[in-house]
Write a structure and sequence with these properties.
Two copies of one chain form a homodimer. The first copy, chain A, is of the alpha+beta class and 184 residues long. Chain A is 48% helix and 22% strand. Chain A has a single domain, classed as Jelly Rolls (Sandwich), CATH 2.60.120.10. In chain A, the strands form two sheets. A four-stranded antiparallel β-sheet of chain A has the order 1-8-3-6. In chain A, strands 2-7-4-5 form a four-stranded antiparallel β-sheet. In chain A, a hairpin with a 5-residue loop joins strand 4 and strand 5. The structure holds a DNA duplex (30 and 30 nucleotides).
Chain lengths: 184, 184
DNA sequence: CGCCGAGTTGAACTGAATCAAGAAACGTGG
DNA sequence: CCACGTTTCTTGATTCAGTTCAACTCGGCG
């Protein structure tokens, strides 16, 4: 599973892949588990084998705003915190019982130093995320609540039906009430 | 200049740096020059030595929406188009007479293959951009027009006074009229 | 059975868009 | 150096999408 995903990006040899994967740990986590609390340093990069997670942050008034959803086959972390050892603005939360593979910064650094291909892998993953973030930005800027929801359905069809409405609403930058009205 | 910038990211040796920079070409461009037209494939990655550029796209109704500003010391390109050889959604335009250094995909690929450090450089540049895009996303989602403008002043203080108001407005996802009212 | 979180519905309010017109700044050629 | 056209910016009046606040429904679960 994680094998297949990595191979889609880079043609690793079997040995390389085995070595790389030996640095990951399998973690089974439950719905509502919090992997990272805001203000702490995010120590791990996670690969979501099966399940869903989200990142969110708290506004001054205490409302939580979903920043991103991480579905099957995606890497999940608080990027600047993890890569730059700074406190995370974001919380990472698991939304349904999930199977993850995690790797620490130290171990990833070993792999990044050892394999040019891993460096490239991370670059490609970043590029993919970057493209998606810009998509979302475009979807939100100058678009109505309905158009935003359509974007969500198009971009994350599998996720849209597994998640509490409130999370989707804050992800799209609208209120839960508005989203509820749109759906009918 | 470009030397110093690259050295901030990675401790290249003199030989490495000379070799790398020999693959770049210096380009002097003028205000209103368009480097990439939407629909075409972006062939080059640019480094802005001095000046300002922006990326924008056209909405159905023909209005142009600024997506990003590229000031001194930043890399500028249409990322997915350049790295994945796909047609660009975005236009790249120069906003004041500028000095750029450009490199083609082919030459960059050579450098990426030859130097593990260049691969890392690009990864770090991506990480920086990713962080900034998420910042912008947070600034726009659930924030008033005034708060967005404050974000702009904080994030891009040098740029805010060199650019037509309309570009800033569309960048922030508000209308020019509203921005004009906010400023006083 | 009654509680509790999640979702829906309603009515009043508001920030920002839209439409329209005028003022200021810019640059280009005579 | 001034006149003219173009672009950029400001200001005003109106309108509307979406927020806010509050009450109510529904389904699951102890």
């Amino acid at each position: 599973m994680i094998r297949d995903y990595l191979l889609e990006f880079i043609p690793f040899s079997d040995e390389e892949l085995n070595d790389i994967l030996s640095h990951f740990e399998k973690e089974c986590v439950q719905k509502n588990d919090v992997l990272i609390v805001g203000g702490q340093i995010c120590k791990k990069l996670y690969f979501v084998e099966q399940g869903i997670g989200r990142s969110y942050y708290l506004k001054q008034d205490g409302k939580d705003i979903t920043q991103w959803f991480f579905g099957d086959g995606k890497f999940m972390t608080s990027a600047d915190s993890f890569f730059q050892h700074t406190p995370s603005i974001y919380y990472l939360e698991i939304l349904e019982d999930s199977v993850l593979h995690s790797i620490s910064k130290e171990k990833l650094d070993i792999l990044l130093g050892k394999y040019h291909k891993v460096e490239k892998l991370i670059r490609l993953v970043f590029l993919e995320i970057l493209t998606q973030v810009f998509h979302k930005l475009n979807a939100i800027q100058f678009h109505t609540a309905k158009e935003r929801y359509d974007y969500m359905l198009a971009e994350l069809p599998d996720i849209s039906y597994r998640i509490p409405l409130g999370h989707i609403a804050s992800y799209l930058g609208i209120t839960q009430e508005t989203l509820s009205r749109i759906r009918k």
